[in-house]
């Protein structure tokens, strides 16, 4: 996966507030403190902003940058590589189906607001190069994110989404792309010590624009990319196990990224390394302790299985420069052209 960036930053949990809500040995559990509940919800919100939504967009970006694009045949019958990274002069206008299985882990070791989460799930898409310069597609996703939060809370979220996208090749070496997606998540927040539970729904929007390049120097392929990502996360109001109505909340992330990959096409496969620098112009509430700036690094390979099918493998570390975070990602992708 090209970039499969999985990057989380959490809100702080009030440790004093949590400890004051522990059950009394002489009576029934006392209500969970609102400071701990709100912080737990915000932590899951940040998880959506920093891991779930960027994961969806980064996997779709692979198709638009040319990663994992299998070989096709031109009018003369010889193999060629098309996709958005190829020359606009290509006579092939394929339809491509892709399937991606991805997973990752995220650990925040800060004294306040710590968590340990894992995520996994499939994504699939279908795209058509309707002219030599224009690609349109639609991706669908299902992601499971679960783990522990500070103060004895556990969180489990299921996210389902759909993301249409488009790419236009305006030059032999450059294309612009746009992604606009919606997803809905259902989250369960639990704390057995506090005898607390809550289930709520989140509406999530993802918008990304990118400038993607493709150059070849001798046998080395260079794929630079500049992108801007906006995610909006809106938690609907809900009533928890205490009978308390919790108001709706909203959070946004605005992230700029500059980077790319370097690959070496070999017979039957193409290994690559990738890196990108990130800066968050707007961060979700509670994210400041982890910083606004960071970087991602990774490596992988695309393996040609046939003229129409390829297999891509990718793994990366996505939290360089972000205090207290250890974020890892990996995915396997199969692409088929018709």
Number of H- or I-type helical stretches: 2
Instruction: Provide the succession of SSEs.
Output: HHEEEEEEEEEEEEEEEEE
Low-confidence stretches: 1-32, 67-91
Helix content: 10-25%
Question: In words, what does this structure look like?
Answer:
The protein is mainly beta and 338 residues long. It is built from two helices and 17 strands. It has helices spanning 15-19, 34-65; strands spanning 71-73, 79-81, 95-108, 115-131, 134-149, 153-169, 174-191, 196-213, 215-217, 220-235, 238-239, 245-246, 249-263, 269-282, 293-304, 309-320, 325-337. The longest helix has 32 residues, at 34-65. The chain is elongated, with a radius of gyration of 22 Å. The two termini are 21 Å apart.
Short note summarizing the structure:
The protein is mostly beta strands and 338 residues long. It has helices at 15-19, 34-65, and strands at 71-73, 79-81, 95-108, 115-131, 134-149, 153-169, 174-191, 196-213, 215-217, 220-235, 238-239, 245-246, 249-263, 269-282, 293-304, 309-320, 325-337. It is 11% helix and 58% strand.
């Amino acid at each position: 996966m090209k970039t499969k960036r999985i990057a989380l930053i959490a809100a702080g949990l009030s440790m004093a507030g949590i400890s004051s809500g522990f059950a009394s040995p002489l009576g029934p559990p006392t209500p969970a403190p609102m400071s701990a509940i709100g912080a737990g919800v915000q932590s899951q919100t940040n998880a959506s902003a920093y891991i779930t939504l960027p994961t969806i967009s980064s996997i779709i970006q692979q198709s638009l940058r040319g990663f994992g694009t299998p070989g096709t045949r031109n009018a003369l019958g010889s193999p060629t590589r098309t996709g958005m990274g190829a020359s606009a002069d290509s006579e092939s206008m394929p339809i491509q189906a892709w399937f991606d299985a991805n997973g990752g882990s995220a650990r925040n070791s800060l004294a306040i607001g710590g968590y340990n989460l894992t995520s996994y799930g499939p994504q699939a898409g279908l795209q058509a190069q309707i002219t030599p310069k224009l690609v349109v597609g639609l991706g669908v996703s299902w992601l499971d994110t679960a783990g522990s939060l500070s103060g004895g809370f556990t969180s489990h979220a299921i996210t389902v989404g759909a993301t249409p996208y488009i790419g236009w090749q305006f030059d032999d070496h450059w294309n612009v792309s746009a992604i606009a997606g919606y997803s809905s998540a259902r989250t369960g927040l639990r704390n057995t010590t506090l005898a607390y539970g809550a289930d709520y729904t989140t509406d999530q929007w993802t918008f990304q624009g990118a400038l993607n390049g493709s150059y070849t120097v001798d046998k080395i392929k260079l794929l630079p990319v500049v992108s801007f990502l906006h995610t909006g996360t809106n938690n609907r109001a809900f009533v928890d196990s205490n009978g308390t109505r919790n108001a709706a909340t909203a959070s946004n992330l605005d992230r700029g990224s500059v980077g790319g990959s370097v690959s070496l096409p070999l017979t039957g496969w193409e290994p690559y390394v990738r890196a990108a620098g990130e800066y968050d112009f707007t961060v979700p509430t509670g994210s400041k302790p982890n910083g606004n700036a960071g970087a991602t690094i990774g490596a992988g390979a695309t393996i040609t299985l046939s003229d129409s099918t390829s297999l891509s493998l990718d793994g990366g570390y996505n939290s360089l420069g972000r205090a207290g975070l250890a974020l890892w990602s990996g995915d396997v992708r199969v692409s088929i052209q018709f």
